[in-house]
Design goal:
By secondary structure, the protein is mainly alpha-helical. It is about 45% helix and about 5% strand. It has 21 helices and five strands. The protein has a five-stranded parallel β-sheet, sandwiched between helices. The longest helix is centred in the middle third of the chain and has 25 residues. The protein starts with 8 loop residues before the first strand and ends with a helix. InterPro entries: Crypto/Photolyase_FAD-like_sf (IPR036134), PhrB-like (IPR007357), Rossmann-like_a/b/a_fold (IPR014729), UV-DNA_repair_photolyase (IPR052551). Pfam families: DPRP. This is Cryptochrome/photolyase family protein.
């Protein structure tokens, strides 16, 4: 039987949609459907992506292509070396080769890409397929958000727990009679528990070829690929997750906010990049962590803290992104316009915590949430660095960064540029917070106990200046009034000295 052009379909699979039987692949059939995947300059260069990020996605795409071909699908794969500029060009090339009557694509994760693909002028029909790889789809989130004056993640998270029966007792109440154990998950590490050394991953032939390609084609991008340690297959990602369950989960909750000189990883799972490109699925990892808790292999605070990040925060951030876009990307409620300092591309600053966090981010494409929020993000917030430049930096530097997750976390949480849509107060802190959470201060030339002077921690004077500069806004914020009053109670001459020193610090850091 000869298949008609009308019945033959071309399925475009994007680089963050590498899950079989999801979205447009859910009902795909070998023999009827042709799949197109492409590594193109437009996607690889819209920000200055970390080499680790490009290598992970390209290698994972090539492995997924092999998986689909083994399942019997015809896959038109366009490698980066081909030189095609865009996904549109790749789809047009594929249509010439397969004569399909319709193009299908799972909803894009980023507004930018969804708008671009939606504007294509194709010679055949086009259809979006709902992205079912998340726990909460767009319509369900919008229904939850409808009519609310504020969007508290905590209430959303409870609904997700109820819907998927995660960490619930037989009567439907939360395990441990509390929904949230965050207060138990803020301990500084300081050698209190041995950090397990993750097993080294040897790149296979596909990954080695991709690493060579990325080093050749993106030589000026951040990243040290001799340290590439990311899984690029579903089996590899699952193996890394299982290692986390056995060796890290028991200490994960307790130390998840800790900062440490000795380890860039501590007890974190490092699976967000696999979730975000489709190598792992959110419900499955949450169920696995709950099983560990019920088997007595971790405490409730660890299990709940993990599930809150995946089933709560990750889903909430994605919902908020699509609810607020496209206007959200242009918000700048604190009028932050200062240029991004050059050391954000080198890590060369005397501020030890900032140097370590930025250097690690550049070299490895990874930093955990407290490094991103309370070290790097806090610095950007206090110094008023340009929102677009900071967001582009975060989007490019981190392996797990796609705009749906990066923008709300950076613009909203870290920079408070949305005026409180994502967070009811800015995540601003002095050097004392960083000292409490980690051990960087011991090796820093600056003292967190001092506010002014050459050896004073820059976060301190910058923090007080931040409160002063935006005092009119914080006076209306119940969660900021105490901090603001502490500033206002200082003698005027002390305030003047602090503000003058903050200007000196800013000039030095941006020189």
């Amino acid at each position: 039987m000869v298949m008609s052009i009308e019945s033959k379909r071309l399925i475009l699979v994007l680089g963050d949609q590498l899950t079989p039987r999801r979205g447009a692949l859910a009902e795909a059939e070998p023999g009827r459907d042709v799949i197109v995947m492409a590594e193109v300059a437009e996607e690889a260069n819209y920000v200055r992506h970390n080499q680790h990020k490009i290598a992970l996605i390209f290698s994972a795409m090539r492995h997924f292509c092999a998986e689909l071909r083994e399942a019997g699908f015809e896959v038109i794969y366009v490698p980066y070396e081909t030189g095609l500029p865009s996904l549109y060009a790749a789809v047009m090339l594929a249509l010439e080769q397969c004569d399909a009557g319709k193009v299908l694509c799972t909803e894009a994760g980023e507004y930018r890409l969804q708008a671009a693909i939606g504007s294509w002028n194709l010679p055949c029909d086009f259809e979006w397929v709902k992205d079912d790889s998340f726990l909460v789809d767009h319509s369900a989130f919008n229904e939850w958000a409808d009519g609310r004056k504020t969007f508290r993640m905590e209430y959303f998270y409870r609904e997700v727990r109820r819907t998927y029966q995660l960490l619930l007792q037989s009567d439907g109440s939360p395990e441990g009679d509390r929904w949230n154990f965050d207060a138990e998950n803020r301990e500084g590490w300081r050698g209190k528990a041995e950090v397990p050394e993750p097993p080294l991953l040897e790149p296979d032939a596909i990954t080695a070829e991709v690493i060579s390609l990325v080093q050749s084609k993106f030589p000026d991008n951040p990243g040290q690929l001799e340290h590439f340690q990311f899984a690029t297959t579903r089996q590899g990602a699952e193996k890394q997750f299982r290692w986390f369950l056995e060796y890290c989960l028991p200490s994960f909750g307790r130390f998840q906010d800790a900062l440490a000189e000795a380890s860039p990883w501590l007890f974190h799972a490092r699976i967000s990049m696999y979730l975000n490109i489709g190598l792992l699925e959110p419900l499955a990892v949450c169920r696995s962590v709950e099983e560990e808790y019920r088997a007595g292999k971790c405490d409730l605070a660890a299990a709940e803290g993990f599930i809150r990040q995946v089933a709560g925060w990750r889903e909430y951030v994605r919902g908020m992104y699509w609810l607020q876009m496209p206007d959200y990307a242009n918000l700048n409620r604190l009028d932050a316009v200062a240029p991004l300092p050059d050391f954000f591309w080198t890590g060369e600053t005397d501020m030890r915590c900032l140097s370590r966090a930025i250097g690690q981010s550049l070299d490895l494409g990874y930093a955990h949430h407290i490094q991103r929020l309370m070290v790097i993000g806090n610095f950007c917030l206090l110094t008023g660095i340009d929102i677009g430049q900071v967001c582009d930096w975060y989007l490019g530097v981190y392996v797990d960064a796609f705009e749906w997750v990066e923008l709300p976390n950076t613009l909203g949480m870290a920079l408070h540029a949305d005026g409180g849509i994502m967070a009811s107060k800015p995540y601003a802190a002095s050097g004392k917070y960083i000292q409490r959470q980690g051990d960087h201060c011991k090796q820093c030339r600056y003292s967190p106990a001092k506010v002014t002077g050459d050896d004073a921690c820059p976060y301190n004077s910058l923090y007080w200046r931040f409160l002063h500069k935006h005092s009119a806004q914080w006076d209306l914020n119940p969660r900021m009034k105490l901090s603001l009053r502490n500033w206002q109670r200082k003698p005027e001459e002390e305030q003047v000295a602090i503000l003058e020193w903050a200007e000196t610090v800013t000039a030095q850091l941006q020189s």
